[in-house]
Amino acid sequence: MPRRPHVLVPACHRVLSQYPSLVVSRKYTDALRLAGCMPLVFPSIESADELEHLLDAADGVLLTGSPSNVHPSHFGEAVHNESLPLDPVRDAGTLALIPRVIARGIPLMAICRGFQEVNVALGGSLFQAVHEVEGHRDHRGAEDVEPAEVFAPAHQVNLVAGGFLATLLQRQSIEVNSVHGQGVKQLAPGLRVEARAPDGLIEAFAVDGASGFTLAVQWHPEWQAHLNPVSTQIFEAFGAACRLYRDR
Length: 248
Known about the structure:
Blueprint: E1 6-10, E2 12-16, E3 19-23, H1 26-34, E4 38-42, H2 48-56, E5 60-63, H3 88-104, E6 108-111, H4 113-121, E7 125-127, H5 147-150, E8 155-159, H6 164-169, E9 173-176, E10 183-186, E11 191-196, E12 202-207, E13 214-217, H7 229-247
Parallel strand pairs: 1-4, 1-5, 5-6, 6-13
Antiparallel strand pairs: 2-3, 7-10, 8-9, 8-11, 11-12, 12-13
Helix pairs in contact: 3-4
């Protein structure tokens, strides 16, 4: 039996019980196992040499969501709300990783913060508070409620006709959850819109002309992915791409 594809997953950095700690929500690693992949969590990237060693071991990369935001200095802005968490160590690793992953053709899937990281890494910018932007709805999730309510379906997204997602799912629209305060302001050069929310906010994109699987989504398909046919299809497609890369 061939080994399961190895998928790199960046850890987030938080202080727990006064100790600097590494955190990855289990829902992401569970979804990767659903896709037939083996998650490999990495703490940080300390050098260009270490980055290349990591990529040598990878058959795919999953950039997860997180409570933290990409530091706005990476797209030329000051911090809008200093009460919101940041993770500069993760920024340093993922923003260096993303262009190299795309250049190598390694399958890449990015969710929520990861979606925003891809846009910033390739030269795009973000709304730091979508709910304060005229014409956009409040995309943040409910607070102080059970996870099932946080990740409940919140709105439709409309899939771009002829795009990767519309072709994969054979649908014109899907229902998604919504747990984000930031969003794409200026789409980076070379990215192709795959889906939009009813208010026009970009909800999914791919790298135009990429040699490997590249899909970034603003919602959270990893939440109970085994119970959601759309999420299952997305992760199965990612897993299939990782197997093809492994066998190449």
